[in-house]
Design a protein that fits this description.
alpha+beta, four-stranded antiparallel β-sheet, 4 strands, about 15% strand, globular
């Protein structure tokens, strides 16, 4: 009886740990235009992460300036904003254990030439200005970015039927 209760408590504790962390991943206009949105989603799903929000949109200049505010003093900022507003993007929120850290690893280095084969940028990109994805760099920035792109009502909460096959 005690062992069963401990197993149940352990299960729910792990479920809570897995659900606590979310990250923001955005497929940039080059990724949308090249038709590789599905491949990026597939890689996160295959890893075992859960998609909790997704939408295609064409963000305004003002929205992008808020999103990339930390880069506003960089010389490439105007070009980044112009490029990012040039076409639709796909904004996503993913959930799972250490999803911020692993999401960044899955994307690869910001400069695709520094990205290992097997990463998204290592497999699909050459130039840093066309690196097809944005990914949150920390848990706090993920919370901020998700809040900028999605309302609370757009974020879904559900238990995936695969949960027990992904987490111990």
């Amino acid at each position: 009886m005690v062992a069963t209760l401990l197993h149940i408590l352990s299960y729910f504790s792990k479920m809570a740990d897995a659900k606590e962390e979310r990250t923001f991943i955005m497929v940039k206009p080059d990724g949308v235009q090249r038709g590789i949105v599905g491949e990026i989603i597939k890689r996160f799903e295959n890893r075992g992460y859960k998609l909790v929000a997704c939408k295609m949109c064409r963000p305004s200049k003002e929205h992008l300036e808020k999103h990339y505010a930390d880069l506003s003093k960089k010389p490439f900022f105007p070009g980044l904003i112009q490029y990012m507003s040039s076409g639709p993007v796909v904004a996503m929120a993913w959930e799972g254990k250490e999803v911020v850290k692993m999401g960044r690893a899955m994307l690869g280095a910001t400069n695709p030439l520094d990205s290992n084969p097997g990463t998204i940028r290592g497999d699909f990109c050459i130039d840093v200005g066309r690196n097809i994805c944005h990914g949150s760099d920390a848990v706090e920035s993920a919370k901020k970015e998700i809040g900028l792109w999605f309302s609370a009502e757009e974020l879904q909460s559900y238990k995936s039927c695969e949960f027990e096959w992904v987490y111990e």
